Amino acid sequence: MDEFSGDNIQWKSYNALNKNAGIQRYAIGDGFIVVMFNGSEEEIYVYHDKVIDTKHINEMKRLAEQGKGLTTYINQHQNVRDNAIKFEPHT
């Protein structure tokens, strides 16, 4: 994951139509999307095209920008779920 270091994440709010959505914020970069799930800033996952098919990454980016369906998409695609990389911030 050479392109993603976590040092300069440009977070965007996930403006879900459903206020009970599991996602709080996200960030999009070249070949990846980072998702912060509700409840804890420790629940940050990176979805990168080096381990997940680009078609999934592009669809996830589209859903994030739309503010609808990203949690469902992640849950319904085992390959996406299983290949997410938990982000461990520098301590």
Q: Specify the number of helices.
A: 3
Percent helix, as a range, is: 25-40%
Assembly of the depicted chains: single chain
Largest sheet: 5 strands, antiparallel
Q: How much is the radius of gyration in Å?
A: 12 Å
Residue-averaged pLDDT: 86
SSE succession: EEEEHHHE
Count of strand segments: 5
The total tally of domains equals 1
Overall shape: it is globular
Strand order of the largest sheet: 1-2-3-4-5
Sheet/helix structural class = alpha+beta
C-alpha end-to-end distance? 19 Å
Q: Which regions contain 5 or more consecutive residues with pLDDT less than 50? A: none
Beta-strand fraction estimate:
15-25%
Your description of this structure?
With about 90 residues, the protein is an alpha+beta fold. The protein has one domain (about 15-85). Helices cover about 25% and strands about 25% of the residues. Strand 2 (about 25-30) and strand 3 (about 30-35) form a beta hairpin. It is globular and about 30 Å long.
What is the topology?
Blueprint lengths: L11 E2 L9 E7 L2 E6 L6 E5 L5 H13 L3 H7 L1 H5 L2 E2 L5
Antiparallel strand pairs: 1-2, 2-3, 3-4, 4-5
